[in-house]
Amino acid sequence: xxxxxxxxxxxxxxxxxxxxxxxxxxxxxxxxxxxxxxxxxxxxxxxxxxxxxxxxxxxxxxxxxxxxxxxxxxxxxxxxxxxxxxxxxxxxxxxxxxxxxxxxxxxxxxxxxxxxxxxxxxxxxxxxxxxx
Length: 132
Hints:
Elements: H1 2-51, H2 56-84, H3 94-131
Helix pairs in contact: 1-2, 1-3, 2-3
C-alpha cells in the first residue's frame, strides 16, 4: 500500500517541479527583458543630460520612473475598463496586461525625452545668442 502513495507522491513532485521550473524560467526571461528596457531608457536620459550638463543620474532615474509611471497608468486604465465592462481579470494573464501597457510606458518616456531635449536645446540656443 505504501508503494502506491510513493508513486502518487513522485508524480505530484514531478508535476510540481516541471511547472515550477517552467514558471521560474518565464519569470527570469521577463525580468531580464525588463532590465534591458530599464538600461536602455536610463542610458538615453543619461546621455541627454550629459550632453546638456545636467545631473546625469537624476535624469536617468527620472526616465525610468516615467517609464514605470506610464506602465502603471496604463494598467490602471485597463483595470478600470475591464471593471466597467464586467470582464473577469482572470481571463487576462499578467504577461498580456504587461504587453498591452508596454507601448504606453515607452511612449511616456519618449514624450519626456523629446520635451527635455527641445527645452534644453532652446536654452542652449538662447545662451549662444546672448554670447554673440
